[in-house]
Design goal:
The complex is a heterodimer. Chain A is α/β, with parallel strands linked by helices. Chain A has two domains: 299 residues, Succinyl-CoA synthetase domains (Rossmann fold); 155 residues, Succinyl-CoA synthetase domains (Rossmann fold), CATH 3.40.50.261. Chain A contains 16 helices and 21 strands. The longest helix of chain A is centred in the N-terminal third of the chain and has 16 residues. Chain A is elongated. By secondary structure, chain B is α+β, with helices and mostly antiparallel strands. Chain B has two domains: 71 residues, 2-Layer Sandwich (Dna Ligase, domain 1); 118 residues, ATP-grasp fold, B domain (D-amino Acid Aminotransferase, Chain A, domain 1, 2-Layer Sandwich), CATH 3.30.470.20. Chain B contains seven helices and eleven strands. In chain B, the strands form two sheets. In chain B, strands 1, 6, 7, 8, 9, 10 and 11 form a seven-stranded antiparallel sheet that branches. In chain B, helix 2 runs antiparallel to helix 3 and helix 5 crosses helix 7. The longest helix of chain B is centred in the last third of the chain and has 17 residues. Chain B is globular and about 50 Å long. The model of chain B has no long low-confidence stretch (mean pLDDT 90). Chains A and B meet through helix 7, helix 8 and helix 9 of A and strand 6, strand 7, strand 8, helix 5 and strand 9 of B.
Chain lengths: 466, 221
Amino acid sequence: MKNNAVSSIEKMINPESIAVIGASRDPNSVGYGILKNLISNYKEEGRGQYKYEGKVFAINPNAKQILGIKCYEDILSVHEHIDLAIICVRAQIVNQVAWQCAKKGVKSIIVISAGFGEIGTAGRIMQEQLVKICKQHSMRMLGPNCLGVIRPSKTMNASFALTIPNPGQVAFISQSGAIADSVIDWAIEEKYTFSTIVSTGNSADLDAADWLDWLARDKQTKSIAMYVESIKNGRKFIKSAKKLKEKKPIILLKGGKTSQGQKAANSHTGALAGDYQVFFGAMKEAGVIIAESIEEMFDLARALCKQPKLQKNSIAIITNGGGVGVLCADYCSQFGLNLANLKKSTLNKLDKTKMMNPNYSKNNPLDIIGDARPLQYKAALETLIGENYISGILVIQTLQSMTDPVWDAKIVIEVHKKNPKKPIICVFMGGKYSHVGIRLLEQNNIVEFNEPRKAVKAMAALYGLV
Amino acid sequence: MDNPQKMLLSYSKTIDILNKYQLNHVSGIVTDDANELRWNFLKMNKPVVLKATGKTIFHKTEKGQVILNINSPEELDNAVNKIRKTSPANADFEFLLQPQISGGEIIVGGKNDSNFGPIILFGMGGIYAQMINDVATRPAPISKKSAGQLILSTKANAFCEGFRSIKVDRKILENFVVRASKLIANEKKVVEFDFNPVIVGNFGATIVDAKLYTYSEDMIL
């Protein structure tokens, strides 16, 4: 029977039983870390205690018990059905172990072990044999040389990453295990949440495109952040990414942009169309958004999963500080975002609210003046978002003595609820005193940035300009 | 394994392929006979340009093998002598005599990428193309819509908007890019090509210099 990529990934993400082959007693080993991650209780502020609910089997012929659970000599000695085998033995015996998994009828394996294609010819030959074993038995593989997968909503940490971030709507696919690892720690600190984290490693069998195909159907995932260094089957990737284009944005960060290896070319095209140039063109065709840094990748992934698309390239800026408004207008021009010209009728409506400071700017950016109180924000925001010719709004709040970040945040949340089809992105500049307002915005799915440029770029991404 | 040497398609094979994909190009006379050049020169609109052509002639401008602004028979004779001097005695080359046209200079190229397959390149062309480095690529063949986005993403878009006295119909340029992308996607024996420059203006887009590369011996004759 054919085991397609999507259904085998489904088994990796939602397994009812997992075998850890190479479970170890050494607390400094990967085999110990993975087993511990799968059977531990996790505690998180506001979420209480939680744990992976499936069955976990430890495989180690030299131990009787590890972390209080029984060890089996090999996977064939386990009588129960195994959905997923995680292999973390040394490279030399991986193929033998994989063959046993196939014999046991396991359909999905994750090979954590390194020492394959990434180390040269000898490793490459072993990797080819490993792929062959998988193909012959319709078994699909993530890795080798990877960190594993994490599914926060299931408390499943099938990796040797330190812990699990909270469940969310952003999927992160990383070719680098180390980046995925560090991002998790950072995410916990920043209250950043994920639907899934996958480290693809050598992608000898399942590759990034297969994961995109699965993510297209994953209900938890709303946007996808990706770190890649190379894409082997470019056309397959474009096809998978194109299918996601309208539904779930992909934000990609490319490592290895510089083409040092480029050989002297005797044609203009050969010299001009370097590896990154070709890659970039292919991503444009696929509708993938390119991020310039790790931070930007997650900024955009977060913004794009929380806010609706910008329907028309026509936005308004509401600010209580002239300077930040000017900066935002500059960035809009840089990213190709158009600022709507406020119509006379709109200004009349604003005047009619009787809330505007007499000196307000009557222009876009709409400067409602430094002493703006929450009700001035409310009047301005409700008026502008109600106009057909304005498709999205940037709300800027600079901090003055009379500013009320929490009330301002509540107003933004309320207006957004009434106008869910128009994106609102906030810039609540400041630190300590804006913090509570910012938390409130984030909890209510409004994206906020402390830096105007990031906010404008996120808005531009909502219109596909990045 | 040795990498085989990339070779240039012969002039006649090049013209056949350009015609097959309806890619406009400047017509020219290819000969190694100076008398034949003079005879044809008299019948042509001036100025004309004289170039060297042959399977190993790659960087003509750099080697002084392109002589522009030829208006008289004397200038033509001088040009013939100059090109002969710059070319090694045993070099396998002929002369190519073409009318000289002016307009905006763009580059359209194609190549096969090991990860993404055939790709099309578009951007600012001419002898400074590499220095300006304002090009973009897409997988080939390309749709009309993507061709439009490709043009918009480089500064060469200004030629569609109108720059100085140069203005090319956007639709014509899009079609040109689409057809060139079909060339690289469909012609298995053409592994890479450069049209540089392609001159654009109110007459449309015309290839002045086309180099098609191949590994197949039968394409160079």
